[in-house]
């Protein structure tokens, strides 16, 4: 039997390279799915059955927006920070706090049960860590290397 | 061991403190000086919005006006207005160092900041008055009064951290 040629190894190498570069994307997608699963469990389990916690999806969607607005508004990337960027951090933090506050208030007035609240809070934590991961990995700007993809 | 040595020194030099040789463990991984503004912004955001959600919680749990008079929301609104007024002017504008003079110049910036701080302190004092005047001294459930007070106190500390916790040198 002939020894493996270089052309045979190249196919395997391509697959291995793809695995390495895609691992961040796959891992983040997985954690995002886990977070959404927690949220849906908090709504859809037999014990709970109330769908009010889905309103935190609004907070998930709007949480990256201040960052993008600040990035668009001030294009000077040589400064370490800027007033606009800090205001964006302020509002993003506010959106995250609100996503945690809403289920707690819903549970305090017994619109949802505390178990559902706990699941929604866990889902919140996972989703926001996922979004943060996306920004850390893919948000580096023009000089990021292709290995992140 | 270091604390023991320091204690030994104390017995010879009675004025030395026993933590004189104590040093925090060094963490060189993150440059905190560059991140100072971001950390201050995040902490201020957490405090500000926690204050608002405490008030929203009180308003939801105590919906009747006899329990939480709807006029008490005014304190939080004025605190928020004061937050944005105080943080709208940069320290450079107040000193007169800034190249762009804005609409009002240095004196205008100082007047704006003054009015902002007046509103902030006024709201804080009003919230304390509401807590003690309308809740503690009456024979009612005190939680809504505490909520008004904590909302304004948290917004006040958030303003201080956002205003004074950031350094403008990182903007250049």
From TrEMBL, chain A:
<keyword id="KW-0333">Golgi apparatus</keyword>
<comment type="similarity">
    <text>Belongs to the OB-RGRP/VPS55 family.</text>
</comment>
<dbReference type="GO" id="GO:0010008">
    <property type="term" value="C:endosome membrane"/>
</dbReference>
<keyword id="KW-0472">Membrane</keyword>
<feature type="transmembrane region" description="Helical">
    <location>
        <begin position="12"/>
        <end position="41"/>
    </location>
</feature>
<dbReference type="InterPro" id="IPR007262">
    <property type="entry name" value="Vps55/LEPROT"/>
</dbReference>
<comment type="subunit">
    <text>Interacts with LEPR. Interacts with RAB13.</text>
</comment>
<feature type="transmembrane region" description="Helical">
    <location>
        <begin position="48"/>
        <end position="69"/>
    </location>
</feature>
<keyword id="KW-1133">Transmembrane helix</keyword>
<feature type="transmembrane region" description="Helical">
    <location>
        <begin position="89"/>
        <end position="111"/>
    </location>
</feature>
<keyword id="KW-0812">Transmembrane</keyword>
<protein>
    <recommendedName>
        <fullName>Leptin receptor gene-related protein</fullName>
    </recommendedName>
</protein>
<dbReference type="GO" id="GO:0000139">
    <property type="term" value="C:Golgi membrane"/>
</dbReference>
<feature type="transmembrane region" description="Helical">
    <location>
        <begin position="118"/>
        <end position="139"/>
    </location>
</feature>
<keyword id="KW-0967">Endosome</keyword>
<dbReference type="Pfam" id="PF04133">
    <property type="entry name" value="Vps55"/>
</dbReference>
UniProtKB/TrEMBL annotation, chain B:
<dbReference type="Pfam" id="PF05255">
    <property type="entry name" value="UPF0220"/>
</dbReference>
<feature type="transmembrane region" description="Helical">
    <location>
        <begin position="111"/>
        <end position="136"/>
    </location>
</feature>
<dbReference type="GO" id="GO:0016020">
    <property type="term" value="C:membrane"/>
</dbReference>
<keyword id="KW-0472">Membrane</keyword>
<dbReference type="InterPro" id="IPR007919">
    <property type="entry name" value="UPF0220"/>
</dbReference>
<feature type="transmembrane region" description="Helical">
    <location>
        <begin position="71"/>
        <end position="90"/>
    </location>
</feature>
<feature type="transmembrane region" description="Helical">
    <location>
        <begin position="142"/>
        <end position="162"/>
    </location>
</feature>
<keyword id="KW-0812">Transmembrane</keyword>
<keyword id="KW-1133">Transmembrane helix</keyword>
<protein>
    <submittedName>
        <fullName>Transmembrane protein 50B</fullName>
    </submittedName>
</protein>
<dbReference type="GO" id="GO:0005783">
    <property type="term" value="C:endoplasmic reticulum"/>
</dbReference>
<feature type="transmembrane region" description="Helical">
    <location>
        <begin position="38"/>
        <end position="56"/>
    </location>
</feature>
<comment type="similarity">
    <text>Belongs to the UPF0220 family.</text>
</comment>
<dbReference type="GO" id="GO:0032511">
    <property type="term" value="P:late endosome to vacuole transport via multivesicular body sorting pathway"/>
</dbReference>
């Amino acid at each position: 039997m002939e020894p493996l040629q270089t052309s045979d190894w190249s196919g395997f190498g391509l697959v291995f390279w793809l695995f390495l570069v895609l691992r961040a994307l796959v891992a983040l997608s997985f954690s995002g799915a886990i977070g959404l699963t927690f949220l849906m469990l908090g709504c859809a389990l037999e014990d709970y059955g109330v769908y009010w916690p889905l309103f935190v999806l609004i907070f998930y969607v709007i949480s990256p927006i201040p960052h993008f607005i600040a990035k668009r508004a001030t294009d000077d990337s040589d400064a370490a920070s800027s007033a606009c960027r800090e205001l964006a951090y302020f509002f993003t933090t506010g959106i995250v706090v609100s996503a945690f506050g809403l289920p707690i208030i819903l549970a305090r007035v017994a619109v949802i049960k505390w178990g559902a609240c706990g699941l929604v809070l866990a889902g919140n934590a996972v989703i926001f860590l996922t979004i943060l991961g996306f920004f850390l990995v893919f948000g580096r700007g023009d000089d990021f290397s292709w290995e992140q993809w | 061991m270091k604390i023991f040595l320091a204690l030994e020194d104390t017995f010879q030099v009675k004025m030395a403190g026993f933590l004189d040789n104590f040093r925090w463990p060094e963490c060189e991984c993150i440059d905190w000086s560059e991140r100072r503004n971001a950390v201050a912004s995040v902490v201020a955001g957490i405090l500000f919005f926690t204050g608002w959600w405490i008030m929203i919680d009180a308003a939801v749990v105590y919906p009747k006006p006899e329990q939480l008079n709807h006029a008490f929301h005014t304190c939080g609104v004025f605190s928020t207005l004061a937050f944005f007024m105080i943080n709208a002017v940069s320290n450079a504008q107040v000193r007169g160092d800034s190249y762009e003079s804005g609409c009002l110049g240095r004196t205008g910036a100082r007047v704006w900041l003054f009015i902002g701080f007046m509103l902030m302190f006024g709201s804080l004092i009003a919230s304390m008055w509401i807590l003690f005047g309308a809740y503690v001294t009456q024979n009612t459930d005190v939680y809504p009064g505490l909520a008004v007070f904590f909302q304004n106190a948290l917004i006040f500390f958030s303003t201080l951290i956002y205003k004074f916790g950031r350094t403008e040198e990182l903007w250049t």
